[in-house]
Amino acid sequence: MFRLALIILAGAGALSAQSAKYGVGRAATADQVRGLGASVAPDGGGLPEGSGTVAAGLEVFASRCAKCHGEKAEGNIGPALAGGQGTLATAKPFKTVGSFWPQATTVWDYVNRAMPFNQPGLLKPPEVYAVVAYILNLNGIIGKDQIMDAKTLPKVKMPNRDGFVADPRPDVGVKPAAKK
Amino acid sequence: MRISGRSSRRRMLGFGAALGGGLLASATESRAVDGVPGQLGIPLGPYGERSPFEKAVRWRRDTKTPETGSSFTPLQDSVGAITPSSLHYERHHTGIPTIDPAGHRLVIHGMVDRPLSLTMAEIRRLPSVSRTLVLECGGNSGSEWAVKTAPDVQRSHGLVSCSEWTGVPLSLVLKEVGIQRGASWVIAEGADACRMARSIPLAKALDNILLAYGQNGEALRPAQGYPLRLIIPGWEGNACVKWLHRLKVTDQPYMTRDETSKYSDLMPDGKARIFTFQMEAKSVITFPSGGQTLSGPGLYELTGLAWSGRGRIERVEITTDGGRTWVDAQLQEPRLPIALTRFRLPWRFEGREELIASRATDESGYVQPSREALIEVRGTNSGYHYNGIKLWRVQADGTVTNV
Q: What residues are paired with B301 via a beta bridge?
């Protein structure tokens, strides 16, 4: 009995004061973390269950996205989401999901957390998969029959996957010691 | 108009000081002078407001959606080195959330030994520090990359502000939860409608980042992330996530929209620099600056602001001949690292056209480059992290324009 009480006390302790030194906070439960919403890694970690097709995505796009981004994602109040491949090294780079974004998972993550602009978080995971499939297909990145889910999406290779480099600065400022 | 007001105020102050301050009262009509009865002022109040005669406000570019965009600090009206919280620049993506701190939680999870949910009261219980730090938007002066640049210093440089920030070292809280082996990044997320998120290297998180709840002696303003935000000394504002409600410790950056599609720097070869967090040394003359008018030839105090994400400002040089010769300005003390530093220089306007500019050097020895030097390396499409020397043209009639 005494031993049982000790075990219960220890368990209660694990759920209440949690931090190492100051003893503040409560254990963050899995439900609590889930309640904050998805946060998706480039390797697909954090992607929920569900899947979506290009055809389903066309319908989601028409009803939820086209008003701001244009019927063909050519841009309106919101930015263009397609086109621009091959323009990044020109005088007029056209940065879109298709030409610039390095990871397909970022498209899912951003649509899920921030779109539609005036009702972010409205779309259910299958709708997000679908609309991402539609946008990727518009950009010629996936075929019209490809299905996007937690397994296929991280494997999509974006055209600009290798287009990002580390910060080399200081690259311009003149060091007085190096003055001629 | 502002300039003539400034000089007349100055004359009045000088005159008042000469007579022991006695005549100054006549301008305020609040004290009895020579038998004229005085009038009572307004009663004491619970929360201060500035004088109704002060008109400096933030400027914002019209956007199709009023919840997004930036508002710019009126640097041309600033004095000293601290920005009033009410005039701190803003950059929001989906508006300013209204958050009751009683219900707010900071959840720390991912590669930690003890996933934790903290209340604001618990965060405020932890040992705190205060630091005066500059905060600059990564896109500040982005208009300067173009040929036709912004007309005044508010619009060209106003996405920079400086406050005393108070909060808990993030390193302390991360030690409380226990970082697991292999962890290398922290994904910070806000509680705004779009849950704006950025990836922060764990090494920086364990170095000198603040979980800030205080600004200039009171709680953060809602527009500055109330009740809790990151303040990352020397790094671009966007990474200093506002309305912070989540820290996820991971072994990789999440390549969020705001660190890939935005706030990355596109180079002429088509490659984009990513995680260009640090803001480099920069300065700008705030008086005289674009849109202002000098009341005529004479002695003025030329002044402006310098800062660097790498540390203290060591030197600010001024040219009045378009960069042929430079003289050192006086720097306001104490020169705090990674804080706005006011510089000043007595300057005589002779009624001839002059091209004026400032050039900052920080404690690392980095010298603020010219616009031409920046463009030579980065082209004109990089969009962010512009810190070139800013020229103003003072015309013979005293009007000041952009160059």
A: B346
Residue B369 has a pLDDT of 97
Whether A88 sits inside 8 A of B274 (CB atoms) is no
Q: Is B184 part of the contact surface with chain A (CB cutoff 8 Å)?
A: no
Structure confidence by residue, pLDDT tens digits, B22-36: 444 444 555 667 788
Which residues of chain B have a pLDDT value below 70? 1-32
| Partner residue opposite A22 with nearest CB, options B176, B268, B367 | B176
Interface predicted TM-score (ipTM) over 0.85:
yes
Q: Which fold has domain B282-402?
A: Immunoglobulin-like (2.60.40)
Residue B190 CB coordination number (10 Å): 23
Whether residues A39 and B122 touch (CB distance < 8 A) is answered with: no
CATH fold, domain B90-273, is Sulfite Oxidase; Chain A, domain 2 (3.90.420)
In this complex, do B261 and A106 lie within 8 Å of one another by their Cβ atoms? yes
Cβ contact (<8 Å) for A21 and B176? yes
The CATH number given to whatever domain includes residue A62 is: 1.10.760.10
The answer to whether residue A82 sits within a structural domain is yes
In this prediction, residue B11 carries a pLDDT of 38
Q: Which residues contact residue B383 at a Cβ distance below 8 angstroms, ignoring those fewer than 6 apart?
A: B139, B142, B145, B265, B266
Q: What is the model's pLDDT at position B36?
A: 85
Question: For residue range A118-138, what is the model confidence (pLDDT) as tens digits?
Answer: 999 999 999 999 999 999 999
Domain boundaries, chain B: 90-273, 282-402
> Rg of the Cα trace of chain A?
23
Residue A6 is assigned to a structural domain of this protein: no
**Distance of residue A143 Cα from the nearest chain B Cα, in angstroms:** 24
> How many domains does one find in chain A?
1
Inform me whether the C-beta atom of residue B326 falls under 8 Å from chain A C-beta atoms: no
Provide, as residue numbers in chain A, all residues whose Cβ is less than 8 Å from the Cβ of B369: 172-174
Give the pLDDT confidence of A40-89 residue by residue, as tens digits.
999 999 999 999 999 999 999 999 999 999 999 999 999 999 999 999 99
Mutation site for A-interface testing, chosen from B243, B381, B385 by largest number of A Cβ within 10 Å: B381
Confirm if A133 and A53 have CB atoms less than 8 A apart. yes
Q: Which residues contact B22 (CB under 8 A, 6 or more apart)?
A: B16
Per-residue pLDDT tens for B331-364? Answer: 999 999 999 999 999 999 999 999 999 999 999 9
Q: How far is A91 from chain B (nearest CA, A)?
A: 8
Three-state DSSP at A110 gives helix
Burial pattern B117-150, b for ≥16 Cβ within 10 A else e, equals bbbbebbbebebeebbbbbbbbbbbbbbbeeebb
Judged by a CB distance cut-off of 8 A, whether residue B197 touches chain A is yes
